[in-house]
Amino acid sequence: MPSDHDRTPRYARNSLTLPGAVMLGTGVMIGAGIFALTGQMAEMTGTLFPLAFLSAAVIVAFSAYSYIKMSNTYPSAGGIGMYLHKAYGSTLPTAFNALLMYFSMVIAQSFLARTFGAYTLQLFEIGDQSQLVPLLGVGLLLLAFLINLSGNRLIEGTASAIGVIKIGGIIVFGLVGVALADSIAVDFARSEPQPTYAGFLGATALGILAFKGFTTITNSGSELTDPHRNVGRAIIISIALCVVIYTLVGFAVASNLSLTAIIETRNYSLAAAARPALGDYGLWFTVILAMTATAGGIIASIFAVSRMLAMLTEMKLVPHSHFGMPGDIQKHTLVYTVVLGLILTAFFDLTRIAALGIIFYLIMDIAIHWGVLRYLRHTVGAHPAILVTAILLDVIVLGGFIWVKITSDPIVIGVAALAMVVILFVESVFLANNPVHSGNSHHHHGN
C-alpha cells in the first residue's frame, strides 16, 4: 500500500470513455491545426494548401499504425514515453526522444495560446502583432492550469462539451463558407507563391502538426475503458473526423479569400474568410469558435503531457526536483509544463513555435517507428513494410520542411538544433550519474 509520503501518480481506471478519448484527441488536433496553420501552409505552397492537408493525413495514417499496434499491446498512462521504453529500454534514445515529444507538446500549447490571442483581438479590430496576443495566451494557460488541478471528470466534461461545440461549429463554418462562396473552384491560377516541391513538403509537415494531437490519446491507456481495443479505435476515429473537417475548411477559406489575403491574415485566416461570406456575424461566430477550440485544446493537451512527464520521472529517466511543492509528481509536472508554455507563449511568434514543434515531433516519430521495426514488430504484430513506409515519409517531409526554413528562417533551425544538443547533453550526464537497470523490463503500467 502506498504511504502518506508516496508521490507516485494515481490513475482512476475506467474513468475515461471512448467518446471522451475521441474528444480529447480531436480537441488537441482541431485546436492546434485548423485555426492558425491554414495561412502558414498557404504561405509555403500557394493554392495547393488544401491538398497539403490531405497529404499530411496520408502520412499520419501510416504514422498512426505504430501507435495503434503499441497501444493495443501496452496501454498505459505513459503513452509515447512507455512505447519508447519498451523499444529502447532505460537508455539515452528513450529519454531523448520522449523529451522531444514532451517539448513538442508544450510547444503545441503555446501555439494554441498565441492563436487564442490572435483571434480574440479580431473582435476589437486590433492587429495580431499587438502585445495583447501573448498576454491573452498567458491568461488562457493559467486558466487551463487551474482546470487541470481539479481532476479527470471536470477535464473530460469540459473537453467533451468544448469538443462537441467546436466540431459542430467548424463543420457549419466549412459548409456555409463553401455554400456562400462565389465559386467552390479554388482559383489555381492565383499561384503566388509558386508551388514548389520543397514548399509542398514543408506545408505537409505543418499539416502533420494539425493531426499530431492523436498521440495524446495514447496517454489515456490507464484510464480508458477496455484500453486494449479503445485506444486504437479512438485514434482512428479522431484522424478520420479531422480529415473531413480540415478538407472542408481548407476549401471554404480558399473559396472566400484571395491567396494574398490568406497569407496576410495567416494567424487568423478563418476569421478573415468568414467576413466576406457572412459579414460581422460570421466574424464573431468564427472568433468565438476559435477561442473555444483553442481553450479546449490547451486543457486536453496539458492533461496528457503532464502525465507523460510524470511517467518519465517515475522511470527515473529525467531529472526531477519537487522545489518544495506538496502533492504527487503529476501535480509537479503540471506546474513545469505550464511554466514552460508561459515562457514560449510570451517570447516566440506563431510561425517559429510551429516550426520547432514539427521538427521535434517528426524526429521522435521516426524513433518510434524504428523502435517498433527493430525490436518490437513480432511482439505487437506490426507489418515491416508499413513501418518502413512511415519512416521514409517522415524523413521526406522533415527534409522538405528543414530546407524551406533554412532558406527563409535559418534562426529557427539553429534554435531547434541547439535545443536538441542541450537535451542530449543534459540527459547523457543525468543517465551517466543515475544509472537505471537497462533492457526492456516490463513495468507495471502496461497490462
From TrEMBL:
**Topology class, membrane:** Multi-pass membrane protein
Listed InterPro entries: AA/rel_permease1, AminoAcid_Transporter
Recorded GO terms, molecular function?
A: L-amino acid transmembrane transporter activity
Q: Which Pfam families match?
A: AA_permease_2
Q: Which UniProt keywords apply?
A: Membrane, Transmembrane, Transmembrane helix
Enumerate the subcellular locations listed in this protein's record, separating them with semicolons: Membrane
Residue ranges spanning the membrane: these are 21-42, 48-68, 88-112, 132-151, 163-185, 197-214, 235-263, 283-310, 354-373, 385-404, 410-432
Please verify whether the record's keywords include Transmembrane helix: yes
In the UniProt record, which is one GO cellular component term?
Answer: membrane
Q: Which domain of life is it from?
A: Bacteria
The UniProt entry, under PANTHER family, shows: AMINO ACID TRANSPORTER, SOBREMESA, ISOFORM B
Name by which UniProt lists this protein? Amino acid permease
